[in-house]
Specification:
transferase, alpha+beta, 424 residues, Rossmann fold, six-stranded mixed β-sheet, Elongation Factor Tu (Ef-tu), domain 3
C-alpha cells in the first residue's frame, strides 16, 4: 500500500525551539540512525547537558553548531506507518526571510512556532505574512516551551487569541489554523499526548500531521501541465508513439478531455494518459504522466497543456509580487531571464510598486530599488507571451523565477498578481 506524502515547513523566531522540535519529531518517530543518536549524546555530554540536545539532529553544519544557530533551509525526510513527510526547516533570523520563502514555496502546511513566554513577536508576524503571501493552505501554531510557563491554560488561550486576529488579517480562514501547545524539550504533545495538559483535547502535532488532508487547492483547479519532455521512441513497435511527459500541476486529466496547447493555441483531445505502470483513467495534481493526444500537433518542451474550457491567460505583461533573493539590488530597466515552468524567456523589469513592510505587515511606498529579502510589487514585460494564472488561484502556473543571464544564478521568486490581501 502506497502512503501519501505531506510537504510541510517550520518557521518561527530565533530560539523558539524549531530545531529541538524537529529533532523531537525525528527521535520519537524513530527516524534517526543509532550512530546519529550516539553522536548527539556525545556532543550533549561535551556541552555539559544531562539529557540529549535533540536540536543537534538537525543543526548539521559544524559552524552552525559552534555558533548555536541555524542559517540554512534543511530538508528532512521521515515517515510513519500512516504517511511520509518532507520537512523544510527554515531559519528564524530576520535577514534570512528569503530562506523562509524558499522553504515554504512548496509546503502544503506550515508549523509556526512561538515561545509560550513571549507569545506573538515581530518575527512571528513576518513569517505569518510570508506564509500568507505564498498561499500555504494550512497552518499550525505550535506554542512551544509550555513547561516553562507551568502548563498554564490561560497563557495558551491568550496567545491563540492574539494570533487568531493576525491570521484573519492575513486572509487565513479560522478552520485553516490549528493551535497545539507543546514542549519540544520534554516531548509534551509532539508525538505523545501529555498528561500535564489535561485541559487540551486537540491532536498531538504528529497526529495532526498524519491526519490533515493532503489535497491542496490545486486538486480542484482547472487542468494544467507544463510539458517537460516529448517522447518519441525509435522502435518498430512504437514508431507512431508521440507522448508529452510532465507533472500535472493542477486539476485532473482524463482520456476524452478537450485541452488547449499554449502558447500556440491549438485545441485537441486527450487520447490516453500513460505511466510507467500502465495507462490511467485519470491523473490528478502532483502525478507525473505522459499524455497522448488525438491530433498530431507541434508541441515542444515549455508548452503548457491546459483545460480548453478554463485556460490560463496568455500575456507578455505581468503585474507580480517579487521576493528578491540576491545581494545584487534590482532596479527598473534591468534585463533578466524569466523561467516559468519549463520555459525560459527574456524579461525587462518595469516600475517597482509598493513594498511589503514585514515588520508592520503592511504595504509602504515603492522603493527606488529592491534589496535582499525585499518583497514588492513590480511590472514585467516578457519577450514571449506566457500562459499564466494568478498565484492565488494556481500556484504552479502563477509562479516564476528571475535569473541573472551572465551567471545563471536565481535572483528572485515571483508570484503573478498580488496574492497577499491584507485586511483593512
Amino acid at each position: 500500500m502506497t502512503r501519501d506524502l505531506l510537504r510541510f515547513a517550520t518557521a518561527g523566531s530565533v530560539d523558539d525551539g524549531k530545531s529541538t522540535l524537529v529533532g523531537r519529531l525525528l527521535y520519537d518517530t524513530k527516524s534517526v540512525l543509532a550512530d546519529q543518536i550516539e553522536a548527539v549524546q556525545r556532543a550533549s555530554v561535551d556541552k555539559g547537558l544531562a539529557t540529549p540536545d535533540l536540536s543537534l539532529l538537525v543543526d548539521g553544519l559544524r559552524a552552525e553548531r559552534e555558533q548555536g544557530i541555524t542559517i540554512d533551509v534543511a530538508y528532512r525526510y521521515f515517515g510513519t506507518p500512516t504517511r511520509e513527510f518532507v520537512l523544510a526547516d527554515t531559519p528564524g533570523h530576520v535577514q534570512y526571510t528569503r530562506n523562509t520563502v524558499t522553504g515554504a514555496s512548496t509546503a502544503e502546511l506550515a508549523v509556526l512556532l512561538v515561545d509560550a513566554r513571549h507569545g506573538v513577536v515581530e518575527q512571528t508576524r513576518r513569517h505569518a505574512a510570508v506564509l500568507a503571501l505564498l498561499r500555504v493552505p494550512r497552518l499550525v501554531l505550535a506554542i512551544n516551551k509550555i513547561d516553562l510557563v507551568d502548563y498554564d491554560e490561560a497563557v495558551l488561550a491568550a496567545i491563540a487569541k492574539d494570533f487568531a486576529g493576525l491570521a484573519r488579517s492575513l486572509g487565513f480562514a479560522d478552520e485553516a489554523v490549528v493551535t497545539i501547545p507543546v514542549s519540544a524539550l520534554v516531548g509534551d504533545n509532539v508525538v505523545e499526548r501529555s498528561a500535564r495538559t489535561p485541559w487540551y483535547d486537540g491532536p498531538t502535532l504528529l497526529g495532526h500531521l498524519e491526519s490533515v488532508p493532503v489535497a491542496g487547492p490545486e486538486v480542484a483547479a482547472p487542468f494544467r501541465m507544463p510539458v517537460q519532455y516529448v517522447i518519441r521512441p525509435r522502435t518498430e513497435e512504437l514508431h507512431d508513439y508521440r507522448g508529452y511527459a510532465g507533472q500535472v500541476a493542477a486539476g485532473t486529466v482524463r482520456p476524452g478531455d478537450e485541452v488547449v496547447v499554449l502558447p500556440g493555441g491549438a485545441r485537441t483531445t486527450v487520447e490516453r494518459v500513460d505511466t510507467a505502470d500502465g495507462p490511467l483513467a485519470a491523473a490528478g495534481a502532483g502525478r507525473s504522466v505522459t499524455v497522448l493526444l488525438t491530433d498530431d500537433i507541434d508541441i515542444a518542451r515549455g508548452d503548457v497543456l491546459a483545460s480548453a474550457t478554463a485556460p490560463p491567460r496568455l500575456t507578455d505583461e505581468l503585474d507580480a509580487t517579487l521576493c528578491w533573493l540576491s545581494d545584487k539590488p534590482l532596479r527598473p530597466g534591468a534585463r533578466l531571464l524569466l523561467k516559468h515552468g519549463a520555459r525560459t524567456t527574456q524579461v525587462i523589469v518595469g516600475a517597482l510598486g509598493e513594498r511589503l513592510d514585514t515588520d508592520t505587515v503592511s504595504y509602504v511606498d515603492a522603493p527606488e530599488q529592491l534589496g535582499i529579502n525585499d518583497i514588492a510589487r513590480v511590472s514585467l514585460r516578457t519577450a514571449d507571451p506566457l500562459p499564466v494564472d494568478d498565484y492565488a488561484d494556481i500556484r504552479a502556473t502563477g509562479s516564476f523565477l528571475l535569473i541573472d543571464p551572465p551567471t545563471g544564478n536565481t535572483l528572485a521568486a515571483g508570484l503573478v498578481g498580488s496574492p497577499l490581501r491584507l485586511a483593512t
